Amino acid sequence: MPAVMTAPMRSCALLLWLPAMVPAQVPAAPTFARDIAPIVYGSCTPCHRPGTSAPFVLLGYDDVMKKRKQIVEVTQQKRMPPWLPVLGDFEDDRRLAPAAIELLRLWDEAGAPRGEPADEPKVPQFPAGWQLREPDLVVRAEQIAVPAAGPDRFRNLVIPVDAGCLRFVEAVEIRPGSRAVHHAILGTDPTRESRRLDALDAEPGFPGMSLGGGGPPDGHFLGWTPGKRVRRCAPGMAWRLWPGHDLVLQLHLVPTGKPETLRCEIGLYFTDVPTAIEPVMLALFSEQIDIAPGVPDFVLRDHVDVPVPITVHAIYPHAHYVCRRMRGFATLPDQTQRVLFAIDAWDFDWQDDYRFREPVALPAGTRIAIEYVYDNSEGNPNRPGPVRRVQFGQQSTDEMGTLTLSVTTGNRAQRLLLERAATLRDLEKVPAAWNVWLKLARIERERGEVAAALAAARRAHDIDPGLGQPWLELGLCHELSGQVAEAVRCYEEALRRDPALGLAHVQLGGIEARGGHPEAAIVHFEQALLSHPNMPVLHHNLAVACFTLGRLDVAETHARRALELDEHYFNAQFLLGRVLAKAGKKDEARAALKRAEAMRPGDAAVAQALRDLDR
After folding, report:
1. What is the mean pLDDT of the chain?
2. SS3 254
3. Which residues are within 8 A (CB) of 590 and not within 5 positions of it... i.e. 6 or more apart?
4. What gap in Å lies between CA 12 and CA 5, rounded to an integer?
5. CA 233 to CA 271: how far, in whole Å?
6. Can you spell out the DSSP letters for 545-599?
7. In a 3-state reduction of DSSP, which class is residue 129?
């Protein structure tokens, strides 16, 4: 009896504990409304919308449904959204999470179900105008035409700016105005070199990948790429737009299949907070690029040792079409290595600058280095045209390899030491570059190392004896060391080689003024104004010379002009008060001196001038 009852009981137990008998729950297929729309609207639509350079829009289910195969392909390959670094903690990282990439694939495999339309998030709205607000100043480049077909082009447009006075720029927005603009870089030019290059070309601007005399203002990267957000500088880190400086806008132009006519706009946002922190541009590069046809793994390396503590705020890696991989790293004094960034699939068409979420502090003695790998074989899909020898050069069909870092130091002395170390490293690579020797001369002079500055300026002269700039630097060094007669000779030699070198006239005028010869000083200052019409110190010095001779109307005009150009210029404000007082305009003089007192509270000379007014 017990044996008969045992089997059914075992059978019941088996039925109770067999998990395979419980139906498995099948996950629901992703839907556009619930899963895909948030991904697309957050990561794709900001570029793929009307009025941008994207080739199509993604504004709703129908748009995404039509392009779903392409979306899956480019996201699986991580070509979209465009974001090159695979290492580096940067702001505005556009990469999709692996789970989002997989959701897109699964949605396509499931037949792209829409889901419940009521569950769909609203299509995002984007500002029709400027991203921040109406800019304080809008400037427009010359109109330029792009043919329907043909090769990519690089064009540098020179844009004179009349901001009225020294401005502190906290944000910039570039609006390209056409899909034909792939990306843009913006610099400022304190010289007239970019204008000279523009005048040599019949079309607007000038060609090539060099900004002429332009460069990043006060160590800031400025540019535009699709989807780039406009950000304000931190207080005290705005860059200075000086009167008379030009903007230089470099455009990468890509034919779109139809003729395009465009006119780029640049919106500038000003702040009243003066520039207190000026980043340094630290550049690594190598011109030793000579890659034979078929070579798949040419390696470029460079490094610089930093002699002071620095903080890295942003980086801008750059190469052309043959480059495939990039690494930038810092080796600390204890030999610990920190990767600053890594790019495994470089794409020249999607180059950008990258700002760290948290600035990277590096101690003195750190070595910053780059390692770039180039593939000049048939296996590189980005290589333009047939395989051929590729060498260093400025054209896009040549090659380059640079990493520019925007860094800050603790004080001016550290800044000069860093600039000196970087310049000496540059001279190891390009010892025949007269302009780099001249840069070293300027740094050594500012450090008070006059002998070293003179040696560097003489080296620049020896490389190209026909130049005027080395003679100007020699004059500055001699004047600093008290050798006035030799300084005058050097300034005159500078003008003999380059009559348009207005800074030599500025210095000669100052020497004449201090020597008690205001008439001769005025002649030099007026000559200098022909090439430097917007230099505040020049207007101030001319006003002083005229004031000395009793030419009060002219002195007042130039003192006011100096203040129009730089409203924070104490010496010009104080001089204006003295000029007005001597002209008998007591109320205006008092107001001017009160403004000077506010600029420099407790100044004894201002206090005495105010007391003199009340006598």
Report:
1. 90
2. coil
3. 577, 610, 613
4. 11
5. 10
6. HHHHTT-HHHHHHHHHHHHHH-TT-HHHHHHHHHHHHHTT-HHHHHHHHHHHHHH
7. coil
> Is 184 exposed, middle or buried, given 0-12, 13-18 or 19+ CB atoms closer than 10 A?
buried
CB-CB contact of 509 with 516 (8 Å): no
Residue owning tokens 């505005």: 92
Q: Residue 97 gets which letter from DSSP?
A: P
Residues 187-232: tens digit of each pLDDT: 999 887 899 899 998 999 999 888 888 889 998 989 998 778 888 9
- Tracing tokens 């920190």 back to the chain, one arrives at 338
Beta bridge partner(s), residue 282: 405
The DSSP code for 234 is P
The whole-number pLDDT of residue 10 equals 33
CA separation for the pair 142, 264 (Å, rounded): 8
Query: Within a 10 A sphere around the Cβ of 101, how many other Cβ atoms?
Result: 17
C-alpha 256/C-alpha 55 separation (Å) is 9
Distance CA 99, CA 116 (A): 22
Strand partners, 196: none
Helix 434-446 vs helix 412-429: angle between axes, to the nearest 10 degrees?
A: 160
Angle between helices 502-514 and 518-531 (to 10 degrees): 160
> What's the rounded Cα separation, in Å, for the pair 455 and 441?
8
pLDDT of 297 > 90? The answer is: yes
For Cα atoms 22, 27, 31, give the angle at the middle one, nearest 5 degrees.
160
Tell me the C-alpha distance between 465 and 458, whole Å: 9
For residues 529-543, give the mean pLDDT: 92
Distance CA 321, CA 387 (A): 12
d(CA 517, CA 245): 31
Confidence of residue 11 (pLDDT cuts 50, 70, 90): very low
Euclidean distance between CA atoms 434 and 176, whole angstroms: 36
Q: How far apart are CA 435 and CA 220, in angstroms?
A: 22
DSSP secondary-structure letter at 123? Answer: P
Domains of the chain: 32-119 (no CATH), 137-277 (2.60.120.230), 279-430 (2.60.120.230)
Question: What is the spatial distance between Cα 139 and Cα 175, in angstroms, rounded to a whole number?
Answer: 11
Amino acid 301 reads: R
Gyration radius of the chain over CA positions: 32
Residue 499 CB coordination number (10 Å)? 14
